[in-house]
Each structure stands twice: as C-alpha cells, then as structure tokens.
Amino acid sequence: MDIISEIAQDFMGLFQAGGDTFVSWVTGIIPMVICLMTAINSIIKLIGEERVERVTRKATGNIITRYTIVPVLAVLFLGNPMCYTFGRFVEEKYKPAYYDSCVSFLHPVTGLFPHANAGELFVYMGIATGITTLGLSLGDLAIRYFIVGLIVILIRGVCTEKIYLYMVSKYKGTQSEEVAENV
Question: Where are the transmembrane segments (predicted)?
Fold first, then answer.
C-alpha cells in the first residue's frame, strides 16, 4: 500500500510543480512583460509612431541591417519575449525572417548580456563551466558567441526570407490557377 501512496503523491507532485510554475509566471514574467510593453508603447507614443516607423523602415530597408541591427537592438533593449514586438515595424513579408533572426540570437547574446534571455543562462553557464575548467577565457567565449550569433542571424534571416517569399509566390500562383480553372 505504501508504494501506491508514493505513486499518488508523486503524481500530485507533478501538478503541484506545474501550479508553482504557473504562479511564478503570474507573479513574475507576465507583470514584467505587461509593464515593459506599456513602457515601450509609451515611449513610442512620446516619440511619435510615424517617426519610429520611419526610422525602423529605413533600418529594415537593407537586408543586412534588417537581420542584424534591428533584431540585436530589440533583443538587447527588450529581451525575450518582448523583442518580437519590434516586428510590428517590419514589413509583413519580412516578419517571419525577422522572428527567426530574433529567436536565433536569444542564446548567443547571453554571455555578454544575460538580461536579454535569462532563461537561457543555464545553458551558457554549463558551457562556461567547462571552458573555465579547461583554463580558457570566458570573455573570449562570450565574444565569439556574440559574433557567431550575428553571422547566424543574418544567414537565417536571409534564408528564411527567400524561402518565405518563394512559398508565397508558389501559393499565389496556385491561387491564380484555381481562379482561372473556375472561370
């Protein structure tokens, strides 16, 4: 009978852990994200949406800055998950690639700017422990992660953009053929 009781307690423990996680979100990350969203929206309103849009349209007009500068600034200033909200200033056809760039940069940024994605810090710290055990420089690791991250987000952004635009053109082509058949 003791084993059945232990299994039941362990089973309920799973739900207790889930409830604790949910409460930590409700009291931690959700209010922070709401406050951050309010602050960013207030700043945008103070500056003027037209001005902010003009600057970001200029920054996203170039394929290199679209997938390096804009995601990096969004990740550094807003962190995860708020960095995705900068996508509202990106043209609709570039949004999937912008999102991919942001997501791809959230890990490499952790070594230099842990505030940007504290949830990934445990991964970086695990690698950092191995590097320091070998007697190597942690600063070099962080800088290399950052530089490689910039290269990766540019490559991923460009590739995702090309794939997305190709798929959209194929979909629109299919739509045109269906319309022509029905006429």
Answer: 22-44, 64-87, 121-138, 145-167
Residue 113, classed as helix, strand or coil, is coil
Considering the entire predicted model, what is its pTM?
0.71
Instruction: Give the tokens for residue 110.
Output: 């952790």
Integer Cα distance of 36 and 53 in angstroms: 19
C-beta of residue 158 within 8 angstroms of C-beta of residue 97: yes
Closest CA to 163 of 106, 103, 85, 100: 100
Does pLDDT of 176 surpass 60?
no
Here the contacts of 7-16 (C-beta below 8 Å, separation 24 or greater) are none
- Buried b vs exposed e over 71-102: b needs ≥16 C-beta within 10 Å? bbebbeebbbebbbbbbebbeeebbbbbbbbb
% of the chain residues with pLDDT over 70: 93
Asked if pLDDT for residue 28 goes beyond 70, the answer is yes
List Cβ neighbours of 18 (8 Å cut-off, separation of 6 or more). none
Q: How far apart are CA 93 and CA 165, in angstroms?
A: 7
